[in-house]
Amino acid sequence: QVTLVESGGGLVQAGGSLRLSCAASGLTFSSWAMGWFRQAPGKEREFVARISWNGGSTYTADSVKGRFTISRDNAKNTVYLQMNSLKPEDTAVYYCAASLFPGTVMTAPQVAYWGQGTQVTVSS
After folding, report:
1. Could you tell me which of 51, 54, 61 has the C-alpha nearest to residue 99?
2. Given 2, 18, 75, 81, which residue has the most CB atoms within 10 angstroms?
3. What is the C-alpha separation between 46 and 13, in angstroms, rounded?
């Protein structure tokens, strides 16, 4: 059974930072591309960042470029999302995702496994 468990969400003031973690189990983690998506109330789930199986390639959405960084530790079966200079519009539930599809952007139909999500709230 594959599980992805996110942690690290919370309430932060605008301009602050958070680091999300996603611990994976039940899959050969180092074979999978990993990603982060987010969904704000009343909006569709949107792509945030993707990292290749070995961490050699990363891609972030334009909306978070320069502020968010995705990384992974294959020895710990964990992927991270470092979020700096947070804005109120970053408020959303953040989801970890695993995919075997190649490419730069990760799309929802390409995701094989989802985490349960972690809430990030940025106050102004």
Report:
1. 51
2. 81
3. 22
